[in-house]
Design brief:
Layout: H1 2-6, H2 9-19, E1 26-31, E2 34-50, E3 73-91, E4 94-109, E5 123-136, E6 139-143, H3 164-167, E7 180-186, E8 191-199, E9 208-216, E10 224-234, E11 243-253, E12 261-272, E13 283-293, E14 302-310, H4 344-347, E15 354-366, E16 369-379, E17 384-385, E18 388-389, E19 394-405, E20 411-422, H5 424-429, E21 435-446
Antiparallel strand pairs: 1-2, 2-3, 2-21, 3-4, 4-5, 5-6, 6-7, 7-8, 8-9, 9-10, 10-11, 11-12, 12-13, 13-14, 14-15, 15-16, 16-19, 17-18, 19-20, 20-21
């Protein structure tokens, strides 16, 4: 056992960080307007999968649907450390700031369950964020690798896909930042704006884009509306260069006096012409999600229904009508946004050529705990799956049940079970067995 651990230094470091380091605040400096603080975030993700890829077995790589290892059962352990330092200087209306966050991550045991994104033994140590910024009055200008999200990440969430060969793991999201940014925030009222240049990582084709976001700055009365547009300036291999994207969104929309009812919705159009192929893009995606919380019921349960559609490419047309998932992210509003389902959202359906119905209930029996159950019905918009023609569009049904524990702002944990059964389209590409995933995720921040 000791010899085996010595072969995995990141595994040893992660375990030491999770269980040895003391939990107290790390104030490094505080004098004459200057402050500096350090933090350390540790993450652990453990999953057991049965009936992997609907019984077809773990794949050798994404897209190699006919090449499997034959493993229909796998155990996956992922670990990460995220040490960081943040510094600030404040004097009157002037504020200067900067931050550095590194990430060390590894994937061990059998490797990522589906076999598509991370292998056992993958490791990565790199900077995630390294940014500087100045704020004066209503203007905030920053530069360097850092997180940046518009809305709940339906279109722009983060610039990394967290594949094992570059990021050491897949599921626990050890890397969160764009690889580079230039962001100007204009924090006026009643409207505010962002003007941005963003660059993604190699898993997202090293794409770079420039655009703006406009939204209301006061959302308490009735919610938030936003407008965003951007153009993809270049990419290495996915053919996104030349794409022009615009979108409208509404979040937390409600009527005064109707405290329990909320609406969320977004529409996005992808146009422009691909510089590489010369093909015009004419794709769209949208979702609508009403939610109602019963404040007087035990546990204050909140019920959601969401319909999400991402257009597929129509046969016999010169345009590309297939929406590209681009830069969606996880967990900005809740665990299920925008990886829709712990089986299908993680392994199969990546927010393109997809229609998904979601029914969800989340309750809070105790301020330190919450429990949620979700049902998904997935289908393809057009009868094709990443180039494979399917006889039908019906893909899968899925049920997730999850328990979250969050006793304070340092500790977060999730225990879940996910079950999915394939329909005709999924059975054409993969197997015909149901898939079961058991999972545990723990995050603890020392600060």
């Amino acid at each position: 056992m000791a010899a085996s651990l010595c072969k995995h230094p990141l595994l040893v470091a992660s375990l030491l960080g999770a269980f040895v380091l003391p939990a107290h605040a790390y104030e490094l400096f505080n004098e004459a307007g200057w402050t500096a603080d350090a933090s350390l975030n540790t993450r652990l993700g453990l999953r057991q999968g049965f009936g992997i890829n609907f019984g077809a077995g773990a794949l050798y790589d994404f897209g190699t649907f006919d090449r499997t290892t034959g493993e229909t059962e796998r155990t996956d352990l992922q670990l990460a450390l995220r040490p960081g330092i943040r510094t600030d200087y404040r004097q009157d209306d002037f504020h200067a700031y900067g931050g550095i966050i590194a990430a060390a991550a590894t994937n061990t045991l059998d490797g990522e369950l589906s076999g598509q994104f991370s292998r056992a033994g993958d490791q990565a140590i790199d900077f995630d964020s390294a940014y500087v910024g100045v704020e004066y009055g209503v203007l905030d200008l920053s530069y360097g690798p850092q997180p940046f999200t518009v809305g709940d990440g339906f279109i722009l969430g983060d610039g990394t896909f967290n594949q094992g060969h570059d990021n050491g793991q897949y599921w626990i999201g050890a890397f969160e930042a764009w690889r580079n940014t230039g962001i100007l925030k204009i924090n006026t009222s009643p409207l505010r704006a962002d003007v941005f240049w963003l660059k993604a990582d190699a898993d997202l084709s090293r794409s770079s884009l420039v655009g703006f976001n406009l939204e209301n700055s006061d959302k308490e009365a009735w919610g938030r509306l936003g407008l965003m547009a951007f153009e993809i300036l270049d990419d290495k291999y996915l053919g996104w260069e030349g794409m022009r994207v615009w979108g409208l969104r509404g979040a937390d929309l409600h009527l005064p006096g109707w405290t329990g009812l909320r609406f969320y919705a977004e529409y996005v159009h992808q146009g422009g012409q691909s510089d590489r192929s010369g093909v015009d893009n004419d794709a769209d995606a949208w979702y609508v999600e009403p939610a109602y919380q019963f404040q007087e019921w035990p546990g204050r349960p909140r019920f959601h229904y969401r319909y999400a559609r991402y257009s597929g490419d129509q046969a016999n047309t010169p345009e590309n009508e297939e929406y590209r998932g681009l830069f969606f992210t996880l967990g900005k509003r809740d665990w299920d946004t925008w990886y829709q389902g712990e089986v299908n959202g993680e392994f199969f359906m990546f927010n393109q050529n997809q229609i998904t119905h979601m029914f969800k209930v989340k309750a809070y029996p105790d301020p330190r705990y919450s429990v949620m159950a979700m049902y998904y019905h997935h289908q393809l918009d057009e009868p094709r799956y990443f180039g494979v023609v399917t006889p039908r569009t019906a893909w899968s049904d899925e049920v997730n049940v999850e328990l979250e524990f969050h006793p304070d702002d340092r500790l977060y944990g999730l225990v879940g079970v996910a079950w999915a059964t394939p329909h005709r389209a999924a059975r054409t590409v993969f197997g015909d067995d149901s898939q079961l995933v058991l999972e545990l995720f723990v995050s603890y921040t020392f600060r």
